[in-house]
Amino acid sequence: MQTKEAYVHTLFDQISPRYDLFNRLASFGLDQSWRRRALAAAGLRPGLRVLDLGAGTADLALAAAEAVCPTGVVIALDLSQPMLRLAAQKCAQTPPGFHVRPVNARAEQLPLSNGAIEAVVSGFVMRNVSDLGRVLAESHRVLTRGGRLVILEFGRPQPAAMRWGHAAWLTAGAPMIGWLATGARWPFTYLRRSIAEFLDPATFAAQLRAAGFSDVTALPMMAGAVMIYRGVKP
Predict the structure, then answer these.
(1) Which segments of the chain are extended strands (E)?
(2) For domain 28-157+199-232, is the CATH number 3.40.50.150?
(3) What integer pLDDT is reported at residue 186 of this predicted model?
């Protein structure tokens, strides 16, 4: 039986060529605005060093690079080599001053020294890691004092009517779009399961505090279907 890490690795390797297309279609084009709101919460400014944890095809990393250019640097870290190859292709087409460095590594074992980064950002990744506590501890380790961790993640909406519609979309709509976009259905049944099994906002905020973060906030969007979590390293 595959470990979670191996399963997720295989999943993202397989869907990488159409990953961006699926994101746009399944979110009705809203996913990029969610990323912009997450980066606003990170308070990025020119010259900062940023780590995009689980960068995928680098949508979040490139938006961060725009915020920190021309002197800042974004490390786009991901486990999937096919995803990073697509990220590198995007980065090659960016204007001068955009500095994004793709790095193939595990989120549970970051190849960075203590206090090397001013901000860690992550988009739709925490459901997929094999050891959430270790990932949060590593994020805390590589941040400078006063550095910010901002996590964009799926959640479960609170209003009953929205919960029903959300569940129906994840059960039928998203897998159908995934199949049309990639020719595979199983990765998108995992999407529904991973959202259902992920921690509720209060519990995840408690995990952030346990990892050493202060000033922890949880901002719901779309009635909680999407969440932005933020913490500061004291």
Answers:
(1) 49-53, 73-78, 100-104, 117-123, 143-154, 214-221, 226-232
(2) yes
(3) 86
